[in-house]
Each structure stands twice: as structure tokens, then as C-alpha cells.
């Protein structure tokens, strides 16, 4: 088992050098990619633990797809979107008409924001939650209605339900929640969604659901016209820079969203689409990433606790923890050690978030803050 894992790490470019990797393989390794794009002084030691990316990706099959298909980028290849949508429909047990593609789930969130904002009103969102995308909602005139988390940093579904009023156009549920890493029980979420009025959109962001054992809510779109599920290839599939996301919803919503994209399904390049198709086939990569993430996350939480940092139980590839009992200057320690970490989310309790990198990266992270 251990031998297999070492072999796999070597194959994806994180093992020892000299395994006969092509130039592209070594460029595609996460640390090499960062070297190309950042101005850090000591680039060899740069550790990216800020954006919840996958430190092992893209998968070997996706890398091969990028290389093999780069030369067809001179054509539009409209047929490739059909192949990707068919593969996604099969994976999620829905019809092809239930899916629209976007350049990352950011574009999906943006399309939903525009859809919801066509009439004035408000939207309901947990606080803190993933809200970088809500500037579109604010700019287009919706009022933000923030609902605090519970004391154990979970979404307060009851309070979110109570916050919905006749003017609510959209409710956003990030499950698992970013930045806290907490998950709603599926049954509670199904009950919640069912109670939301039909004329209010419910956007369920499942960016991190692949790091859990919980089943997606995507088949609910068959019976619920107001549910939109946002999915991404940026996290467990390791394709953040390739920008591939998609929405699953009922046909009418998908058509309305598609009308907000001038070239429907084609903000994603053909090469990225082919890499996504290849990634869906690389189930070994996904399950290896899943178990490595679990192992490294457990290690990191244990070490953070030894440093008096209270950690919220995480179901994701990041950890939310408190710096209120940590006695050094955390951010200075990170900076001095070439580590990019998260920010403070809640001043009270000084909560921050760290991405789970490779075991070697997390050992350096812990050493840096000890
Ligand atoms: C909860 C959540 N949703 C959506 C996104 C957007 O990801 P992408 O646009 O890369 O799919 C992120 C990125 O970190 C995220 O954390």
C-alpha cells in the first residue's frame, strides 16, 4: 500500500527526481508552476496554503490530455462540450439539459448572481462563508442578509430559513462551508431546501463535497425548480488554473443561465474540457487525493492543537482554527518561512484558515509556527 502510494507520488511529480518525467510533467508539478508565476525571493521554498488548491494535481490523465490536445486549440471544437456535458450527466444521474459549463464555478456563481438580481430584493448568506463572488449581487442591487454561524461554526439552517422573506431572491449554502470546513447533515439540508419558497433560488455550492462521503443534492433538481448546484474541477480534481466549473439545475434555470453567457459552455477552452473528461476517468487519482488529504489534515489538526490552537472539525482540504491562544505573530512566522496562508475571518477569536498541502508542506508549516 505504502509502496503504491510512493510510486503514485513519483508519477505525479512529487516524488524524488530522476523518474524519467517529461519536461511537461515537471512543469506541471504544483511547486514548479508557482515558480513560473510568482516573484517570491526564495521560490524553491514557497508553500501555497491559501486558496484550497490540490497540491497533487492535475491528475496524470489530465496532464496527458493537456499535452496530447494542445495542438487542436486552433479550432473551436463545439462537439467537445457535448462530450463533457454527457460525462457529467452520467456521473450525477441527471440529463444533459440540466447542465451548463462555466470558467470555474466562479462564473457559475456569477451567472446565478445576475439571474437572481434581475428584480430588486435581498439574498441570504451565512457569515462567515464564501463571499468573494457576492460583489455582483451587491453591485446589481440586492441587499445582503448575513446570518451568523452557530457557536460550533456550522451553518445555522433554522436562522437562515427565518431570514428568508418575500423579497428574498437567493439563499446561498456553501456545503461544506468555506472557511469553516463544517458540513450540514444531508437530511437537514434536504428539509431546509424543501421549505424555501419556490420563487427563491437556492444555490448550493458543493466545491468541497468531494472531500466528504456525503452524496450531492444534484438529483433534487428533478423535482425542485429553484435549486442550483455549483460544482468545480478546481479542488479534488486539481484543475484550479484550467478554470472548469458547472451548474446542475432544472432545464428552465439552465436555459436562463445560458442566456447570460454570450457563448454558452464555451468560456472553458477545448483543452481544459478534454482535461476535465480525462480527470473524470482518473478515479485512482481522486481516491488517492482523498485519502492523502485525510491523513495530512489529521496530522495538521493534531499539531495545531499541541500549539494551543482550537481547530474546528473539518470535512475538507482546509482547516479553520483560532489564533487567540497562539502567542507568536502567526502571519510574520508564515512570511518569514515563505508560506502563503489565509487571513483573519473573525476578529473575535482570531479565526483563520489554512489549506491542507502535502505532508512535507504541512510539516514545514508546523515547524514555521512552532
Ligand atoms: C466555496 C467555493 N466556491 C467556489 C469557488 C470558486 O472556485 P473555482 O472558480 O475555481 O471553481 C471556491 C474557490 O476557492 C470556493 O472555495
The stretches of 5 or more residues where confidence is low (pLDDT under 50) are 16-42
Strand content: 15-25%
CATH level 1 name of the largest domain: Alpha Beta
Helix percent band: 25-40%
User: Strand tally, please?
Assistant: 12
CATH topology of the largest domain: Aspartate Aminotransferase, domain 2
Order of SSEs: HHHEHHEHEHEHEHEEEHHHEHEEEH
CATH architecture label name of the largest domain = 3-Layer(aba) Sandwich
Please state the average pLDDT score. Answer: 91
Q: Strand pairing plus helix content: what structural class?
A: alpha/beta
Our Rg estimate from Cα atoms comes to 21 Å
The best one-word shape is: globular
Quaternary: single chain
Strand order of the largest sheet: 2-8-7-6-5-3-4
CA-to-CA gap between the ends? 32 Å
Sheet of most strands: 7 strands, mixed
Give the count of structural domains.
2
Query: What small molecules does the structure contain?
Result: pyridoxal-5'-phosphate
User: Quick one: CATH superfamily of the largest domain?
Assistant: Type I PLP-dependent aspartate aminotransferase-like (Major domain)
Q: Helical segment tally?
A: 14
